[in-house]
């Protein structure tokens, strides 16, 4: 296993540190933040508000990469200038380090990488060979495998962390997992990227539903897994008239392409979450997507919309897990389990999900 460092380390990549034990190819040892973010020598919990880990952030890029075999470059959630990326990639190349980048960053830097030795690109979105699938057949196909879908109110609300917690819960009990996610670094966890055609708006809506259904059906046949987990990209509801989450197009396509046995909805944190909010969300998910949500996740993230500039901006904020846990303790809803992936409620919820599937579906 190769030792590795990540740059830039921010909210979008913090789950790589928390679930690094699930990464088989690399031993993540250094988590490098760009300078000027006041994160040097702080626990990674300073970014996501989760439980402290004794894993610490550094701003000393050169020192960190001298200690490892591989440097993983990602396109972060906060902007980093292209010249900083390029100077760091050049230094890593000069020091003889293996360079790994995600395809999002590769696309952003475009031709700027031409003068640098070839980097390993994390698996891009799947290009499906249409010759292998009969998309003229409009019938939806289903396989007898338990499916868990993870939805979110919007972006940056811990959906991928929930997927990793589910992966760990099933694999630790000896079960094989077929998993799909939109994250650019999903390949590090042996998780498949969702196919490219799903995001191609030039393909008719109904065609994408059928293609995705047939693609997943074939993947289930090939994988022979015990359970399938799918992270649903995008948000299920508009945040306001400007940020409409593309009117929930992708969640709607996926919810029509598969029939999940368990649906999880991750909501943003706010202190006054109550029973009525959860019940209204549950009704909305049932009638909009056909998803029965018995598990609600309260994220460590909240958001605010900054309207001070000409173009409004969504700003995501992190909340300490203890505040989230306190809010969860104040919400009691019959037949609904509420949890936070970073807090003590997570273990009980993962066990409940496992028990629900193992009791009711023979293949698990």
Helix and strand arrangement:
Elements: E1 2-7, H1 14-18, E2 26-32, H2 45-48, E3 57-58, H3 61-66, E4 70-73, H4 82-94, E5 98-101, H5 103-109, E6 120-121, E7 147-152, H6 159-171, E8 177-181, E9 192-193, H7 205-223, E10 227-231, H8 249-257, E11 262-267, H9 275-289, E12 293-298, E13 301-306, E14 313-318, H10 321-329, E15 337-339, H11 345-360
Parallel strand pairs: 1-2, 1-4, 2-3, 4-5, 5-6, 7-10, 7-11, 8-9, 8-10, 11-12, 12-15
Antiparallel strand pairs: 13-14
Helix pairs in contact: 6-11, 7-8
Structural description of this entry:
By secondary structure, the protein is of the alpha/beta class. 32% of the residues lie in helices and 19% in strands. The chain has 11 helices and 15 strands. The strands form 3 sheets. Strands 9-8-10-7-11-12-15 form a 7-stranded parallel beta sheet, with helices on both faces. Helix 2 links the parallel strand 2 and strand 3. The chain is globular. The mean pLDDT is 89.
Key structural traits:
single chain, 364 residues, alpha/beta, 7-stranded parallel β-sheet, 6-stranded parallel β-sheet, 15 strands, globular
């Amino acid at each position: 296993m190769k030792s590795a460092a990540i740059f830039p380390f921010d909210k979008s990549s913090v789950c790589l540190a928390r679930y690094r034990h699930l990464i088989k190819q690399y031993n993540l040892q250094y988590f490098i933040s760009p300078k000027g973010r006041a994160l040097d020598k702080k626990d990674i919990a300073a970014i996501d508000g989760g439980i402290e880990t004794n894993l610490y952030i550094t701003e000393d890029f050169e020192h960190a990469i001298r200690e490892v075999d591989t440097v993983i470059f990602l396109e972060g959630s906060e902007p980093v200038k292209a010249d900083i990326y390029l100077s760091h990639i050049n230094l890593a190349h000069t020091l003889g380090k293996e360079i790994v980048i995600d395809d999002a960053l590769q696309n952003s830097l475009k031709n700027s990488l031409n003068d640098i030795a070839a980097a390993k690109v994390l698996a891009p979105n799947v290009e499906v060979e249409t010759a292998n699938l009969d998309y003229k057949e409009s019938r939806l196909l289903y396989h007898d495998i338990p499916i868990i879908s993870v939805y979110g109110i919007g972006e940056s609300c811990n959906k991928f962390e929930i997927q990793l917690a589910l992966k760990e819960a099933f694999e630790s009990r000896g079960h094989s997992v077929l998993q799909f996610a939109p994250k650019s670094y999903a390949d590090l966890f042996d998780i498949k990227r969702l196919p490219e055609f799903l995001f191609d708006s030039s393909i008719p809506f109904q065609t994408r539903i059928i293609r995705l259904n047939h693609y997943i059906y074939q993947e289930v046949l090939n994988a022979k897994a015990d359970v399938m987990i799918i992270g649903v990209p995008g948000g299920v509801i508009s945040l306001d008239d400007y940020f409409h989450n593309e009117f929930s197009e992708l969640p709607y396509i996926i919810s029509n392409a598969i029939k999940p046995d368990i649906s999880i909805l991750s909501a943003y944190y706010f202190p006054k979450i109550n029973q009525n909010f959860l019940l209204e969300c549950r009704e909305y998910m049932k009638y909009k997507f056909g998803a029965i949500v018995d598990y609600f996740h309260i994220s460590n993230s909240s958001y605010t919309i900054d309207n001070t500039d000409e173009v409004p901006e969504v700003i995501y904020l992190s909340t300490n897990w203890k505040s989230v846990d306190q809010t969860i303790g104040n919400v009691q809803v019959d037949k609904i389990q509420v949890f936070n992936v970073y807090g003590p409620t997570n273990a009980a919820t993962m066990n409940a999900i496992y028990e629900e599937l193992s009791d009711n579906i023979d293949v698990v």
